[in-house]
């Protein structure tokens, strides 16, 4: 971390001050290992933040500085993020990003991945996509658990999230309150979809050497059987509570990775269930991986270790586990 | 891995061919990334192993070779292992060891730790103590899970193992079949004790920055209420089924880490329960971490990544997660 550590801690640049970016910022309170030194968001340009009295600039080209770690929370599209990421890496920043498509872009977007990897290597810094999903619950944890197994033949992950406990944009994103017809239209239009499941499947596939080549994704509504109250009002019976999304990865027609995500208002018993079919096989049930909170926590707990990986575009399984900066 | 990778795979030296060492060796079947090139065990010296037709030598000084990864499965005592570890490191081997006291020796045995660290750095290799416990179930997993939390105030781990499913030496080690009096004598004599709980507590304490300075360990018998059959015969009612061991780590008199291990014949529902008291807090229940099998698996799944850490004495939280060699 020679490029980013200083007596006052690791210097942080905040890029993107939407709900996730601000959530991450709030989780830095009391962490003396870090010091926020700049912030970027076109929507807030010119304003002054409470944290560190930072004046927000419009664009990363206005930073006029080098080094430290940039926290990039500005959208799910890797193509859309590439110019900003390239600028940050070129000015010598390690980058920890919540861009879902960055979690494992090597197979889905190989040209973009190769370009970003080259820029990061050239400038001796690390680029990493992470968060709770993708980046932790449905990929990193199964990979970590696989280390206890002689062999793993297949992986099944079932994540259940109560969207009623989450931020309002998420409730809209999962389609809460829509009719089944409206939900179907928005799925076809691409506005209802959790981005990141195929990335998680590719990460698991590659880390465990499962050899899957076929990836399918289906998105269905979870429909209310009776009226359900939530943050923005009421979901009537027969209307949509949220999304039921499934990615299956196969080798020679055999489904070896199954990632099943249910995010809807009012879902009981939020949990993450991981089943490894292997020798001897394993089941893990975790309660407490709440989406927004866990994404902010995972990002903050990654800041101190991202610089300990080899320069380049990295995936979460390549970092050391310990969240502490030391 | 430049010092150990070759077209034929990573070269392995097997040091210690007891139950664990042989278990590890059997788990290498079908893993083309590795190639066994030498074996060391005084009890088997001169014999030829089925695996690779290796002729076993008596001592590491007879190896006459350099490089690759040594798998060291030869006892729990770090002081006892130091000469062998030093010889292996000095001859350019990365070392993955199941020596329990090596899992985190920095606080308990700082002089030995410093000496081994210096030798490893001097020769550009990594020394790591691992296994399922210590090394995974009660330390690595809680550390990994902490990354999802804004903050962690306290850690509680409860590991339940049915010793009846395990190798016979373990059943003897936990005192199965003894009277309560014999059990107490052997605890006082130091022959009944699972080695590694304080090491796990120190690993968690350091990785999570909990600041504990006091460590206590208690060992009690689990007593049969009715006769219980097991591998070597029958435990009569009133006699010992196994061990109930507890390590508590405290800061300013407050217990912040509680590691509770129960290993006995006939214990129902073997499982690992991790509870993180924090924001927001988390509970994890894993079924499938069987001691001997998981130790062998963890060791084998570590061989490909030990060389990706910086040279020196390392702890498991400093390695990348992905078990694959690539």
Automatic annotation (TrEMBL), chains A, B:
Where does the source fall among the domains of life?
Answer: Bacteria
The chain positions of domain 2,4-diaminopentanoate dehydrogenase C-terminal read 137-321
Q: Which InterPro entries match?
A: DAP_DH_C, NAD(P)-bd_dom_sf
Task: Quote the SUPFAM superfamilies the UniProt record gives.
Answer: NAD(P)-binding Rossmann-fold domains
Q: What name does this protein carry?
A: Oxidoreductase
Tell me the classification of the organism that encodes this protein.
Answer: Bacteria, Bacillati, Actinomycetota, Actinomycetes, Streptosporangiales
